[in-house]
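User: Structure tokens for both sequences below?

Assistant:
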Amino acid sequence: MNSWLNISADSDFSIYNLPFGIFSTAKDSPRIGIAIGKYAIDLSKLNDAGLLLNDKLTNDILVNNYLNDFIALGKEVTVPVRERVQGLLCDEGHKSAVEQCLISLSDVTMHMPVQVGDYTDFYSSIEHATNVGMMFRDPENALLPNWKHIPVGYHGRSSSIVPSGTEIHRPKGQVLPKGEDKPVFSPCRLLDFELEMAFIVGKSTKMGSSVSTDEAADHIFGMTLFNDWSARDIQKWEYVPLGPFLGKSFASTTSAWVVTLEALAPFKVDGPQQDPPVQPYLAYNGQHNYDINLEVAICPDGGSDNVVSKSNYQYMYWNMAQQLAHHTVNGCNINVGDMMASGTISGKDESSYGSMLEISWAGSKSLTLNDGSERKFIKDGDTVKLKGYCEKDGMRVGFGEANGKILPAN
């Protein structure tokens, strides 16, 4: 597939990708765009020019603060729109008209892609769960008894999910200092990133119904990078018996462009063997894991990037189809725009660990950055950058970045 637009071979936003997002400019209010190379395509302008050829694409859907209304039109609309834009970018006959709808990415402000009604965080990497169990429980029985039977998850805070580039203040809360028996109130001392990905629900269900693993793909619009920041010391004190609260709810960072499942389809791979066999409602057909290269870098204030982790989404033990089937098996309804995160994605060796908790092994060792400074956890002024991309047979499909800088506590 060849486009008349000059697109760098290493661009995340190739002709094979065409992710959706919400952008604004100095002159234009938030609206739906598609990323291609170094540009965003304004879909409202394409539509005004009569190029999208779909009477369901009204101005109030395309000039919008969120993708929700567009996604709710269903894949019978959203998939042809992406394919139509793909065709326009490959047809020299439409070059002049499409060029009028291109805006340089350097001139746009990106916003939250969707209005998130509900957010669920899973715990689906067996390597990560095993590492945490070895650190804090029995190294010989690191996984809890339920872990290989259900995709463990919890309901998180949707209001504090923010787009890439948003600065985040260090959270405050109660922590129990080592060797003490009473908590103190202080800024978090053990701030961490979590390398995750999230999927966005593309089709709602009614309360009392459920989504099977065979139906799951029809209910998933696309995916983003996701950093589920964690205040480890606050979390450790509070999580028994009801789980994370203040240690997780202060912020999560998502990348701004949503890569569709259709763009990811060429990169499907088999998932790991699940043993013991799962319950029938969690059994699935076909491939639901994806070969997505992931990377985390820490950039100190005024410094340069230090890559601290290289992992891959294909390691996930529990896949998205199983997560969605489990989430809805009790009759829980889902809505367009809901986000469901994977949980920390760690690989099989230290270079692929998806959190500072694992990289520093609960703070027992330090990581030296290229400026000579050391890290066990994230310091004020640090920017954490997540990147991700797929590559195969000359095709590259990427997610851009999910970046967040840590500011001192208020």
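Moving on to the next sequence.
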Amino acid sequence: MQPLAITIKQAVIKDLEILYKIEKECFIKEAFTKKQIRNLLQNSNAISLIAQTNGETAGFIIGLTYPNNKARIGHVITIDVTIKYRRKRIGTRLLNELERKFCRKGVEICYLEARIDNVAARELYRRQGYKETKQLKHYYPKRTNGVQLKKKLRA
């Protein structure tokens, strides 16, 4: 079987509708609103990427950069892959490309959060070198706990 051809490019405001649709598919009740996604796409400190394959948008990722003392910090805000394209390394490709772009902006440490019960996401992040740094009590709706993960990036 031939590997899936995946193209990753910058997300722009015209991608808002499909990004919102994917966000709702992935996170249902915890999904960002369309306005929140629009604000992220327009944020000058955000990096927004989409993955396309077979003429479809298969997923996206949005990260923010922040100054922190002498270093820059990266924060993965959301990573979404449609159900149809899960387990095809699209999430990995998106995360790797975001980290590359973070490094180009001088980011040294990247953070993200995951639901404590999202085993698949936590395993993906562990395989990518993220370490769980702390529990986040009642971080998600319905008092669901989360976990913060951290990775040191190489410039």
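User: Anything stand out in the second?

Assistant: Residues 90 and 108 are 23 Å apart (CA to CA).
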